[in-house]
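Order emerges. For instance:

***
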Amino acid sequence: MDGGLPIAAVERETGLGKDTLRVWERRYGFPTPARGSSGDRLYSSEQVQQLRLIGRLLDSGLRPGKVVGLNQAELQALLVQHAPVQPANLSKTKNDRPDAVAVIDGLLDTIGSHDPRALRHALSHAQLRMGLAPFVTDLVAPLTRAVGEAWAQGRFEIFEEHLYTEVITRVLRHAIASLILQPEPQGPKVLLTTVPLEQHSLGLLMVEALLTLEGCTCVSLGTQTPLADIAEAARVHRADVVALSFSNLHKAAVVQSSLRELRTQLPASTALWVGGACAALYQWPLVGVSTVQHLSGLQPLVAQWRHAR
């Protein structure tokens, strides 16, 4: 490589699609990749960092025309301006309590200490002490938001955010595997995934933990599954529910069209549940699609499904 990341690697690093990067290059004059010996686009580390920040701002609801092309200092300032007042918005809990704030602050310090063993011990201890459901809704959800904001504001590097994601993923998977399941599945069977370019897997894992506690059978495909494959997997696994997570990465029209298309590909008997940070999910609800704006909304949705059966 002649220096810089190729466009496929930038897509993986930032969550921004190749077509999006090319459109921005033409429309906004940014990014401005160099060209390798074979003519391929190569993006500098500085541009990749700017694109990561832009992705964060898009997740916060800003439009590309407002942020694409701004320098790092301007992007950082916007991130601080648009940071949520409380990191607890992912769940309906009272995480503004001084003790909750202190716990999250302490875990952020542990992440910054670069000691994965200490971080894993602290999180595992909290899970055992709190129980899995409160651990997910009252600690993991706001902590994940806080880690993202710390990265956006320059406190953490991307490798530190990745470290947190890796450790909390292991803790959650161990906790899920340790659950004593019901002798007979209570339903529904839920297929969990995201559409292409949606790379955030931790939200899916939190949902899987809460649904497993409710007695659901979960089948996780990971992230970035094409719509036709989601429909086929739902058929093969005989899923009662397909559950998807959306960030603000995509335009509202793209999210709406994707959900309409998937809804037509799924049998009418297969429920479609969606959640995440994408505001369009809640502003323009679709027939045959149930929205879950907060993790606390999962339990009532499961109860509603069982009552309907």
In short: The chain has 14 helices and eight strands. Residues 132-152 form the longest helix (21 residues). Confidence is low (pLDDT under 50) at residues 85-96. Strands lie at 5-6, 34-35, 41-43, 189-193, 217-220, 241-246, 271-276, 290-292.
